[in-house]
Amino acid sequence: EAETGKSVSVRTVFETPTVAGLAAALEAAGAGDWGAIEPADRSLPVPLSHQQERLWFLDRLDRSAGAAYHVAGAVRLAGSLEVSALAGALEAVVARHESLRTRFGVEKDGPVQVVAAPGGFVLAQEDAGALDAGTLEDRVASLVSVPFDLERGPLFRATLLRLSAEDHVLVVGGHHAVLDGWSVGLLLKEVSALYRERVGGSAAVLADLPVQYADYAAWQRSVLTGERLEAETAWWREQLSGVPEAIGLPFDRPRPAVMDYRGGSVAVSIPGDVLAGLKSLALSEGASLFMVLEAAFAALLHRVGGDADLAVGTAVAGRRRVELEALAGFFVNTVALRHRVEGSVSFREFLSAAKDVVLSASEHEAVPFEAVVEAVSPVRSLSHAPLVQVMCVLQNTPDASSALALEGVEASAFADEAGTAKFDLSLNLTETGEGLVGRLSYASQLFDRETA
User: Nearest Cα to 245, choosing from 446, 341, 421, 385?
Assistant: First the structure.
């Protein structure tokens, strides 16, 4: 749309798998009607985005969620690190992205975004040379889980643990209301470029930021309103009408009255030869790798739980406009994919139906999940998440260790299992050169590790 002024759906891309066919579809397509994102009038209060408003509400409703809504990464840095250059690079990135300087004030009409002026960011530093491996992991986990005050801020922070002159651990993170997983990767890439510049390398070349997150929030509120919002939410209301209140799985313990967000995770590894088979199946069925994985996960949940009607959530980047690709903020959205198992069907038949579910949902994925929940109006309970209690995500964002590249320093992932879970089960996978790797996170109140 940014190049041609026209818009085609994801379904059109899948149903028109040739360049010539897609060109014809694009020629016949109409113009996108969402409008460009323009700078907001900053003399007026800036509203929260729909996504932010849900997290603000949850924070006021249940502070026990704690680190479940933190986004963080920890990287081990081996080599001659220039700490002042790293601190300067982080400060420049915080100055560049307003979301990292945002907190939430409360006015008579509700919460608003309050953006602090650039400057004042400090990289916290600690001497951790006396800590053994286990204690170091505990310290990183404690840093990741320190609560954020949404009204007072700051909602983004970074700490450098010094183990020795050439061994450090960098812990960065923020509240989910101001950044998402995509944001962490792009921030660390920017830090890498700015660090290189500060240690005498080439000048950092960063993408222009024509808008900031507050502009996006004001735009979202202006376009997702009135008849458009009603039409979009009506589709979701029909799609999810009558979905079971909660998924049925063989839990180790009864579902508690109040979810405490404690969790664990187990490593998942799918070897390269199996991945090749999955891709071959996807190609033969005109599907994506994600569609195959999500359908397989849904089929597994049906097998072990017996539900013939179940909803599986997934996360979409929410950055379908070019203005947002290089911007830090909370754009990711949860999308509910509803599956029905009728009679005895083959997996290929189930995959075909799942493909249609994913493509249909993609046409309406811009509707914030909180608006979908409000429209469907399920029975609300503190014992489980609304509409979806399981997630399946195929990540395409780099992890912290691969995103951070500092001159003369080797970066590697640091074990940082957060010990939290927002859902009963969450399967997160990433494609690598060797296959698929990831983790299955689980709610400790429901599952023992062995069961998960």
Answer: 385
